């Protein structure tokens, strides 16, 4: 209960700060699970605001999500946005199923309908421009050849990422 109370307070502070800074025509863009209540809180303060929300982490399956004690509040919070974005189609699908199970929303192809509000849901994978980060130099070519020589009959996949539990490493 205490953690949930703090989570709500922090989200309300962000919504207050957004409302203070918002000007007609601004687009409010909210990122990630720490701020899942902010879209609805901003909507209450600024009914005419255009609000987007992007979740950078996996959204759990609906039957798992519905076990959370504050599932309705979280879903209603996110659905305060006009557009909700996910990394993959399966995460979007999980969100839509959870909203249907928990809130009884109507599902459309790429929209959820809750009361008189329509919320678009989309898939927007984030990636990098590989050409910007890959240099075709003699040194790199030699390193790739050495790696391939170590595993000649296998496919070689090399990834460089920060060690972050959300990355599935």
The H/E string reads HEHEHHEHEEEHH
Radius of gyration: 21 Å
What is the tally of beta strands?
6
Helix content: 40-55%
How would a crystallographer describe the biggest sheet?
6 strands, mixed
Q: Write down the overall mean pLDDT.
A: 88
Total DSSP helices? 7
Distance between the termini: 31 Å
How much strand content do the residues show?
Answer: 15-25%
Shape: elongated
Strand-pairing-aware structural class: alpha/beta
Q: What topology, given as strand order, has the largest sheet?
A: 1-2-3-6-5-4
> Which regions are unreliable across 5 or more consecutive residues at pLDDT < 50?
none
Task: Write the topology of this structure.
Blueprint: H1 2-21, E1 27-31, H2 38-45, E2 50-54, H3 62-65, H4 71-78, E3 83-86, H5 89-103, E4 106-107, E5 111-114, E6 117-123, H6 130-133, H7 138-150
Parallel strand pairs: 1-2, 2-3, 3-6
Antiparallel strand pairs: 4-5, 5-6
Helix pairs in contact: 1-2, 4-5
Description of the molecule:
The chain has 169 residues and is an alpha/beta fold. The protein contains 7 helices and 6 strands, in the order αβαβααβαβββαα. A hairpin with a 2-residue loop joins strand 5 and strand 6.
């Amino acid at each position: 209960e205490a953690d949930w109370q703090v989570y709500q307070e922090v989200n309300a502070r962000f919504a207050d700060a957004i409302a203070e800074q918002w000007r007609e025509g601004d687009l409010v863009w909210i990122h990630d699970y720490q701020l899942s209540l902010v879209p609805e809180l901003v909507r209450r303060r600024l009914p005419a605001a255009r609000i987007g929300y992007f979740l950078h982490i996996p959204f759990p399956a609906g039957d798992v999500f519905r076990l959370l004690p504050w599932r309705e509040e979280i879903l209603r919070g996110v659905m305060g946005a006009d557009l909700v974005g996910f990394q993959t189609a399966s995460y979007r699908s999980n969100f839509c199923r959870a909203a249907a199970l928990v809130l009884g929303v109507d599902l459309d192809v790429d929209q959820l309908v809750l009361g008189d509000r329509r919320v678009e849901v989309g898939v927007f994978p984030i990636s990098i421009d590989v050409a910007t980060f890959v240099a075709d130099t003699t040194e790199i070519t030699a390193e790739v050849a050495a790696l391939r020589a170590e595993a000649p009959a296998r496919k070689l996949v090399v990834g460089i990422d920060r060690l972050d539990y959300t990355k599935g490493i």
